[in-house]
Amino acid sequence: MAWALDLDGVVWLAETPLPGSAEAVGRLRGAGMRVVFITNNSSMTVDQYVAKLARFGIEIGAEDLLTSAQAAAQLLEPGSTALVCGGAGVVEALEARGVGVVREGSADAVVVGWHRDFDFDRLAAATSAVRGGARLVGTNDDPTYPAPEGQLPGAGAILAAVSCASGATPVVAGKPNPPMVELIRKRVGPVEVVVGDRPSTDGLLARRLGAQFALVLTGVIDAAGAAALDPRPEHVAPDLAALVAGYQGDRGAV
């Protein structure tokens, strides 16, 4: 069985590692658990994520990282074309799928993901392609992105702009939607615990995988918000380190 960990708001906040996260991953691995990382943030490539985790003391292989960009790419057929309104991670996933990537003009699909250089020209290009018949695909629709300075606009805000301007309803690939569920089942298999900071994505993903949901309070929700949740998560902890220590303590693990 595996533990599936979110990244933003669980392992780090932007470029700031959350204390104890690397040690918590080490404890899980020491107890014989496979640990995989599942992120709705499609902005970076797989190698960039692997390198960032390594900088923060967590060594992984590419097979243990699943992104919403990869889930979105599975929705497109090899040989089709996509206009990318997103970051390098979206481009990488589409090219690995055999999808031709363009930045303007017509395309079979428009794929929207979180990126910091979104502007009017990107919005206009994406909208024009959708109005020309392209399918609108979102890597995810998270409204915010947790950062040390607070909640920044997320991919859902960018996707909403394209949807509003084009009049199209998007297909969303990332957590907790079926494309990501299918990708996890294919690449990971059974999951025991999903750890995340967002009940609407990580929590619902856990339900759909038949896994326990462990909510950490280092991202988008605080203790008061957690107490008001219905249904309640199986576990609530201040951070990943406390979660793992408490979980292993309950099971009699060292």
What does this structure look like?
The protein is 38% helix and 22% strand. The chain has a 6-stranded parallel β-sheet with strand order 5-4-1-13-14-15, with helices on both faces. A 5-stranded parallel β-sheet has the order 7-6-8-9-12, with helices on both faces. It has helices spanning 21-30, 46-55, 68-73, 88-97, 120-131, 155-166, 178-187, 199-209, 223-227, 240-250, and strands at residues 2-5, 12-13, 16-17, 34-39, 65-67, 81-85, 100-102, 109-112, 135-138, 144-147, 150-153, 171-172, 191-196, 212-216, 235-237. The chain is α/β, with parallel strands linked by helices. The protein has 2 domains: 2-68 and 176-250, Rossmann fold (3-Layer(aba) Sandwich); 76-172, HAD superfamily/HAD-like (Rossmann fold). The longest helix is centred in the middle third of the chain and has 12 residues, at 120-131. The chain starts with a strand and ends with a helix. Helix 1 packs parallel to helix 10 and helix 5 (120-131) packs across helix 6 (155-166).
